[in-house]
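Today's session is about reading a structure prediction critically. Students often jump straight to the picture, but the first step is always the sequence itself: look for stretches that repeat, for charged clusters, for runs of hydrophobic residues. Only then move on to the predicted structure, which in these notes is written as discrete structure tokens rather than atom positions. Here is the chain we will use throughout the hour.
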Amino acid sequence: MSLESPMLRLDCVGWRHLAGVGVVSAVLAGSAASVASVQGATVPSTSVPWQAAAPATRIHLDLRERRISVIRDGQPLGRWPVAIGDPSTPTPTGLFQVESKLENPQYQSTTSGKVHPVTGPSSPLGHRWIGFLQQGPNQFGIHGTPWPHWVKIRAAVSNGCVRMLNADVQKLYELVEVGTPVVITQ
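Below is the predicted structure for this chain, in token form.
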């Protein structure tokens, strides 16, 4: 059986997979990297501090400018506007790495448990998810949005995630891999 639409539990943070009838939660404790395997799909499930000295490719998010870039061998490959976390639920700063990449994730609220029935570009997560920080059942990520207005005005409105225009997150998704460093600065 293959995984279909991955489920993300979010107040804009978190994920879990639905596989057939059973629900498998990928929440693992520990400070070292650990991996959960769900019927052949391997997904990282904990945060790992970035420790590479000079990575060839990295994501840089400048919270002050509210702009995200991919830097490869010191050269920017793309720069895009983003919406970030509200001051009461800020986007974390620091050094992280891409822990998961999912196509057509499905949103599930961590507070109500309600599953949003729509996947793809019109879902609350858009059609691409790039997870970079796991905290308990929640995960912070970079994802698309059906509400481009918030990205265009570079608003601070999310529960910590980074929202991008769907076309832009598609480009970012294609430029990075699991393990790519994510640098988030104030």
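Discussion point for the tutorial: The first helix runs from residue 148 to 152.
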